[in-house]
Amino acid sequence: MLIDTYGRVATDLRVSLTDRCNLRCTYCMPEEGLQWLAKPDLLSDDEIVRLIGIAVTRLGITEVRFTGGEPLLRPGIVGIVERVAALEPRPQMSLTTNGIGLKRTATALKAAGLDRVNVSLDTLRPDVFKALTRRDRHQDVIAGLEAARDAGLTPVKVNCVLMPGLNDDEAPDLLAWAVEHDYELRFIEQMPLDAQHGWKREGMVTAGDILASLRTRFALTEEGVDERGSAPAERWLVDGGPHRVGVIASVTRPFCAACDRTRLTADGQIRNCLFATEETDLRNALRSDAPDEEIARIWRLAMWGKKAGSGLDDPSFLQPARPMSSIGG
Ligand code: SAM
Ligand code: SF4
């Protein structure tokens, strides 16, 4: 098991397949992009599958989420999903994507064994999309969402970050649209994980703001706390259900005490928290022929040292050196 000194057990593995991206969301990376990881530093498909195998067979991982960067930019993604689906025990598999490549890949991903997708979409207005992501690809995301639903990668969840002055007036419209198309909408509070360090606590749109805005048009009923489990989204029934809306309030209502995550970066580093300032290298062990049990031992040790919380509420908080796109969000 991957247990820490506070008794939390990690069962959910987030795997970053690449740090590259075809969008430039303002809350994530600068217009010119970033210094991408060098090819030889990236784990190969075989190395990724081996590490996930160790996690599933020796460390109690039951859920694997592929992310990035934009994970659909990784050429071998369908093959990776297929090989992970063949593992015993087979983990649940999901993907967080900006949706642009889904029209092309949704059917193949489903056939390979992917269970679900989360697609990030912050606005229904193409001009706002262009301002937020610095690319004119709104229609591709909409098409990707439809392809995911048609392929049965359901429930399709939509991740949405609200930015002051850009799309913070859109929460009720986004929810009405999500209900109409049978997508489960989840708002994510903007976190200080952008490469350009532009996050400001004072300016951010909080969970409280989002709920107040939604309540101008919808009746929201909070689901029981048990339903929340270790999932970070607090969920509300919309107008009595069955549709739900989620809010991931990592900044104003952190869920660190219930965290069940461990993260693997595209260059083979274990992170025990999004906000960790330290990482543990597995790539070197992999490439020096360490046996599975040795790799599992290093991974267990990395998780044992997990801190109680993100430290976001502490004035001495330090943003991690790696931005979200390179950690794997
Ligand atoms: N490129 C894929 C995508 O956008 O879905 C996967 C990686 S992205 C880093 C994962 C999620 O993190 C997205 O839903 C994105 O909106 C969110 N995200 C990125 N930067 C963020 C930030 N500073 N605060 C909150 N969420 C952020
Ligand atoms: Fe790319 Fe996702 Fe970051 Fe947007 S949030 S720039 S889509 S990695």
TrEMBL record:
Keywords: 4Fe-4S, GTP-binding, Iron, Iron-sulfur, Lyase, Metal-binding, Molybdenum cofactor biosynthesis, Nucleotide-binding, S-adenosyl-L-methionine. Pfam families: Mob_synth_C, Radical_SAM. GO terms for molecular function: 4 iron, 4 sulfur cluster binding; cyclic pyranopterin monophosphate synthase activity; GTP 3',8'-cyclase activity; GTP binding; metal ion binding; S-adenosyl-L-methionine binding. Residues 309-329 are annotated as: Disordered. S-adenosyl-L-methionine binds at Y27, G69, S120, M191. Binds 2 [4Fe-4S] clusters. Binds 1 [4Fe-4S] cluster coordinated with 3 cysteines and an exchangeable S-adenosyl-L-methionine and 1 [4Fe-4S] cluster coordinated with 3 cysteines and the GTP-derived substrate. Its cofactor is [4Fe-4S] cluster. Pathway: Cofactor biosynthesis; molybdopterin biosynthesis. It catalyses: GTP + AH2 + S-adenosyl-L-methionine = (8S)-3',8-cyclo-7,8-dihydroguanosine 5'-triphosphate + 5'-deoxyadenosine + L-methionine + A + H(+). Residues 5-223 form the Radical SAM core domain. GTP binds at R14, R65, T96, K157, R261, T262, R263. [4Fe-4S] cluster 2 binds at C256, C259, C273. [4Fe-4S] cluster 1 binds at C21, C25, C28. Its EC number is 4.1.99.22. It is an enzyme of class 4 (lyase). Gene3D superfamilies: Aldolase class I. Monomer and homodimer. Catalyzes the cyclization of GTP to (8S)-3',8-cyclo-7,8-dihydroguanosine 5'-triphosphate. Belongs to the radical SAM superfamily. MoaA family. This is GTP 3',8-cyclase. It comes from Streptomyces olivochromogenes.
